[in-house]
Amino acid sequence: MLFKRIAEMRRPRDSPSLLCFDLGTAIVATVRKQKIASLHELTEGKTIKFEFALKGKPTEGFVVCFQGQLVAYENRCRHLPLSLDYDDGRFFSRDGKSFVCQTHNAIYEPLTGLCVRGPCEGASLKALKIEVVDGEVWLVG
Ligand code: FES
Question: Does ligand 1 lie within 6 Å of residue 82's CB atom?
Fold first, then answer.
């Protein structure tokens, strides 16, 4: 009952998505800005793992350069709460075109994080917001 009242107070009647926006903002605010890599380390197809705190909990992420673009995701499959790699830093399929979860072989598009084949098809990896400043890659949200 209390939660319902709070939700109603935060959400205008004709804007049902505002509550989701507010929650999303709150989640972003729980990630502390931190340096995660140097740009020169991220050659094409290279992945670098890093740890960060998400809502105060230690969480693993990875950043990759794919087709000249930098993207970062939480290292957590959308099928089960397991890392994509087996702690060996291998994220790519053999052809180097997709990320693959090593547990049940879900296939994800590197630039979007979308699962295109496997038990979580249609779900997406959680993207992390990054910035490049003076040759350093920063996690910012
Ligand atoms: S845990 Fe990743 S596909 Fe099942």
Answer: yes
> What digits encode the pLDDT tens for the residues 93-138?
999 999 999 999 999 999 999 999 999 999 999 999 999 999 999 9
Q: Read off the pLDDT of residues 34-84 as tens digits, 9 standing for 90 and up.
A: 999 999 999 999 999 999 999 889 999 999 999 999 999 999 999 999 999
Residue 24, both tokens: 């999303």
Q: Which residues contact 73 (CB under 8 A, 6 or more apart)?
A: 61, 62, 113, 125, 126, 127, 128
Q: How far is the CA of 138 from the centre of ligand 1 (A)?
A: 28
Query: Which structural domains are found in the chain, ordered by start?
Result: 1-30 (no CATH), 33-139 (2.102.10.10)
Q: Looking at ligand 1, which residue's alpha carbon is closest to its atom 4?
A: 104
Atom number in ligand 1 closest to CA 102: 2
